[in-house]
Amino acid sequence: MKKIKKEKISGGNKLREKMLKTIEGYKKLSEEDKHCVHIYYGYGKGKTTSTIGLIIRALGAGKKVVMIQFDKGYDGKNEHYSERIILRKLKEAGYPIEIFATGCERMNEDGTFRFKNMKNDLVEAKKGLKLAKEYVMKGKQDLLVLDEAIAAVAYNLLGKKDIEDLIDLFRKNKRFEMVMTGHKLWSGLEDKVDLITEMKKIKHYFDKGIPARVGIEF
Fold first, then answer.
1. Of residues 11 and 4, which shows the higher confidence score?
2. Directed axis angle between helix 160-171 and helix 119-138, to 10°?
3. N or C: which end of the chain has fewer CB within 10 A?
4. CB neighbours of 202 closer than 8 A, spacing ≥ 6?
5. What is the signed CA dihedral for 122, 126, 127, 132, rounded to 10 degrees?
6. pLDDT, tens only, 158-204
7. Beta bridge partners of residue 144, listed in sequence order
8. Is residue 65 a contact partner of residue 143, using CB atoms and an 8 Å limit?
9. Strands (E), the chain
10. pLDDT tens digits, 106-151
11. C-alpha to C-alpha distance for 178 and 67, rounded to whole angstroms
12. Is 200 helix (H, G, I), strand (E, B) or coil?
């Protein structure tokens, strides 16, 4: 009887073995070491959108979520961010999500944006930072999203040390996943986090005269 030659391990099998090894290694990690810090940054569209997708995924998996937004205030009447409308409805429907919007009104009546910081902008940023620290230390969430926390540094609302200290605080309280967004990183920040995804602008319709649109950009 002709012997059947043993097939060599294919690329697919090698990948499977690698994945199995990763899974087994993950099981051996402490619960603390299983939690990571993400940063989504860049000048391309999609940073906050990505965090919203992650929030939906976490809620779908039965996880508790807290989202703290910096420089994206809400006065209870003028809602400039449509994603918050649906997230509030999810909360009303019983999903375990808490949403905190800090920041002052930046939209002018003519549809333009106020770039210059005022005193209350700084006050609101510190309010968001305080909330973040409280949830890092004592919160019961599985996912903490700090939307525009990195951007707050670029806009001089927070200092680099504020964010670095917050990450260090997380390292001492690793019982959840933490995500931050913004436009620009600084030297040394990469070494403090576990995942960085850059949203790079290749082409944008804004450059040919299409402004931010409801349901697409906000």
1. 11
2. 10
3. N
4. 44
5. 140
6. 999 999 999 999 999 999 999 999 999 999 999 999 999 999 999 99
7. 66, 178
8. yes
9. 37-41, 65-69, 97-101, 143-147, 177-182, 195-198
10. 877 787 778 889 999 999 999 999 999 999 999 999 999 999 999 9
11. 10
12. coil
How far apart are the C-alpha atoms of 142 and 61, rounded to whole Å?
11
- Nearest alpha carbon to residue 196 among 11, 36, 33: 36
CA terminus-to-terminus distance, the chain: 70
pTM of the model: 0.88
Name residue 139's amino acid.
G
Question: Could you give all domains of the chain from N- to C-terminal order, each with its CATH number?
Answer: 35-208 (3.40.50.300)
The amino acid at residue 191 is D
Report d(CA 181, CA 39) in Å as an integer.
6
Which residues share a beta bridge with 179?
38, 145
60 φ, ψ to 5°? -65, -25
Task: Identify the residue whose tokens are 């700084």.
Answer: 122
